[in-house]
Amino acid sequence: MGKKVRYEELFPHEIEEIIRDKPVIYLPFGTLEWHGLHLALGNDAIKAYEICLRVAEKSGGVVAPATYWAIGGMPHPWTTRFDEVLISDLFFAIFEQMEHVGFKVAIALTGHYGLEQMYALKRSACDFMYRSSMLVAPLPEYEVACEKGYRGDHAAKWETSILWSLRPELVDVSKLGVNLEEPLEGVMGEDPRVYASVEIGRDIVNHIVDRLSELTHRMLNKTSPLDKLKFIRALNIQADVLAGIMNMGSEGYAILGGREYETFIQHLWMGRYDEAIKEGEGLILKLKTPK
Questions:
Q1: 281 neighbors 237 (Cβ within 8 angstroms)
Q2: What is the mean pLDDT of the chain?
Q3: Fewest CB within a 10 Å sphere: which of 23, 67, 136, 199?
Q4: What contacts 101, CB < 8 A, 6 or more positions away?
């Protein structure tokens, strides 16, 4: 039996011991949203929660229950959408309560990564850290796996593979049929019937768990006050980039998928904050420069 890491299942003496030894809280965020005919509606939060469990079991800390209320979503049935201000306030309140409990680091992992959701999560984390001693690392799981080719998709190769490896009973690719010429409703990315597999999911999940474990250790043990200020600055720049991309519409997505943005992400989550700031400022300039 693995170590107990689920917040709601801990006894008071158990959480007290964990906070004393490894004061890290993992906060999984997602939504209830159409993910094709083949994935469970709660894919995003389930994915984030299961990844957080594996990181906590490997590296210590506590996993909070998943939050299923989010901003944005596909224009399909059975999808819930909430106001940006409401959810931003919710993010901030959750961070406040986790600091109140005694945690020093929060890994806020969102499996739902629409631009509005990511912007709100990152900006809320920055606003919170300016007035708090707790560190918050807000990110979608792909930001520590882009070097493996995972840049985020929707119910396509990567999300299907990941959920398949984590919760196979929640994936049924046969629901998509066999006609590869027919477009898949609500699927954005490589066709999961052709490219998804349990093995791909297992490999990328293991990589994400390793990277998040490294991030947790660095945030808890190797982040000076100056590092914190640089980290917040880099995150704010990323939020500005996301806001600029949203304002540009479809043209901005080329920047999101570009090499410069990938380099920025890698610097950020490897703790190379000076390099991240420099790369991010270049992205801001690129967004402001008319073509």
A1: yes
A2: 95
A3: 199
A4: 15, 19, 25
